[in-house]
Amino acid sequence: MIFFKAIQKIAFFTLPLFIIPVGLQAQQLPIRIVPLGNNPTIVRQLEQYPNNSRNNQVCPVDTLSLPFFDDFANNNSIYPNCAKWQDNHVFVNQDMANNPPSIGVATFDGLRPDGMPYDPTAGVSLGLPADTLTSQAIDLSGVGVGDDLFLSFYLQAQGLGDRPQVQDSFFIELKDSADNWITILEFGGVDNSVSTLTIPDFEQYFLAIDETRFLYDGFQFRFRNYAAISGNNDHWHLDYVYLEKNRNNANPTQVNFGKYPDVAYTKPPRSPLGNGYTAMPWTHFAANPMYRDSITLNNFNHNPCNTAGTLDRRYEVSELSPNATPLLTMPIAALANYSCSPNSEDEQSYSILGTFAPLVPTEKTILESKYSILFPTDFQSGTDFVGNDTTTTQTVLDNYFAYDDGTAESRVLALDIGTQIAVEFTAEVDDTVRGVYFHLPYFRNRNAEIDFVNVKIWLDTLSNEVFSNDIYRLRYSNGFNGFHFVEFEDFTGRKIPIPVQAGQKFYVGWQQSSRTEVPVGFDRSNDARDKTFVSIGSAWVNNDISGAIMIRPLLSVDSSFTLIPIEKIAEESALTTLQIYPNPTTNQVYLQLDEASQNKAADYQIQLHNMLGQQIYQGAFSTELSLFDYTNGIYVLSLIDAEGNLLTQQKIIKH
Known about the structure:
Layout: E1 9-11, E2 31-34, H1 40-48, E3 68-70, E4 91-93, E5 105-108, E6 128-134, E7 138-139, E8 150-157, E9 169-175, E10 181-188, E11 203-208, E12 217-227, E13 236-244, E14 263-265, E15 279-281, H2 282-287, E16 294-301, E17 309-321, E18 325-338, E19 347-351, E20 365-374, E21 390-398, E22 410-414, E23 420-426, E24 431-439, E25 452-459, E26 465-473, E27 483-487, E28 498-500, E29 505-512, E30 520-523, E31 532-536, E32 539-542, E33 548-549, E34 551-555, E35 578-581, E36 588-593, E37 605-609, E38 615-620, E39 624-626, E40 633-640, E41 646-654
Parallel strand pairs: 15-21
Antiparallel strand pairs: 1-11, 2-22, 3-13, 4-5, 5-13, 6-12, 7-12, 8-11, 8-13, 9-10, 9-12, 14-16, 16-19, 17-18, 17-20, 20-21, 22-30, 23-29, 23-31, 24-27, 24-28, 24-34, 25-26, 25-29, 30-33, 31-32, 35-36, 36-39, 37-38, 37-40, 40-41
């Protein structure tokens, strides 16, 4: 007998989303989007709660009873709910999937539960065992062969993350009464014939469990993937897992088979701020309370096509901190005759009705936006499905602008020395730009490399560059995934604040100045293409890749300002102290090591790079170095040990 029958795929609605994956560039722009090295969200959470990998979830001690359902909605954890699942390999999130059937998915990748690669040295061309998601034990002893027991789930390859290749795979396995795991169904990665501009749809699968060897007390099922285990690669997204009996597959539209008494939110609310912002300085908001003028609700209707009802929803915005104040409560006009999906009602846009309550912040403020479903009727009444009836988003008014949501799904690289990337912002009050945050995703062994960028700011237009901190080395550390703040200063460390006026546009960004590309976080859940520009030679063009580059300008009229607290990287401890004098110099400089390093000097190498990041000299360590043959300008001297590790760097200016 075939273990499972009536394997059926039901693809639901998707909206086209064109994302440029590795190797493709819109308009042949000199930029590229690549997968992350680890999972920044998991790493940051475990840094805060190192001994709390499951967030104090209460796990069962007895077997579960039917029905089994999980759509990973409002899970309040980055890990699966241990009341339903045994392991914590997968990443529960609301960011990585594209048009899921319900808010929240379980993402399978090439990372361990701590968000780091299973094997950083593994090749990307091999699909190796990676994540596992195993159900808790379930009592099926009272289920008969003819009871129409089905396991159903939705599955998507790639989503907003990395595409699994043909060598990668996804498995569904069942444990029989003899404790053997039986592979029932396997999916291969995305075929090479599928356009790289196409994101595969979610598809729903139904597996009939009709053999006695599976119908026992203690039955389990699990999902597994094979992936490139050297990074955050080869994504599969799982959602809406449902195991129940009396599901007659002869009619896949009936409630207990392919449709459910549920209407689900599929995306969280956008920030209530206008101009595409996800964050802005509270002083600028106080001067111009900038709210968006419309909202978009994304719902998926899991009900049978012959059942319709009235769908009542609500949009709310509240101040969470420092006060608890409602700012807007907007009922959404009831959708009578809300029918089965897919249909045009799954995405609805509405103009903001009414006005926001006055809010004039005097300090850092946190807002919360909420979508909710109200007064469920007969087609929206399942108690198992209430988790996806509400979804929220928080917005921070602090001292920086942002278009991103703080979560990187990928990295963006500026290819080729000289390539520039700039992001546009507009000041609402007279203020001072003090620096810019760069979101720096993890990159293996990055501290041993020489990564230089020129940090820049332009005023009014991209032809008016007013500041460039040449050859700035962005600092990395193993596991670091936060926002690293670069304060505007010259080579001597003197602060260079940049004043801006109310209504004035300004641009912050960087120029690639070394041959090793510097990765910066890229948020695919928000789209700021119209505010992002890339240089092609002397010309600037709009970036055509959907997403938001994760750089955030910090503004403060006061030279004393606060930084994002938990995500500020600590300065690396210096392994070696090197004094260079005179500096600036007209020709020759002298080098002096600290006492502890002098006895190793014979093993050290010196490298010298120009302002384009090009290595122009390498040789054994010496206490004297002549710059006679080099033109006036800024140079970076690097001290390298016998193993090739970078010990320290310093700028030298010749004039």
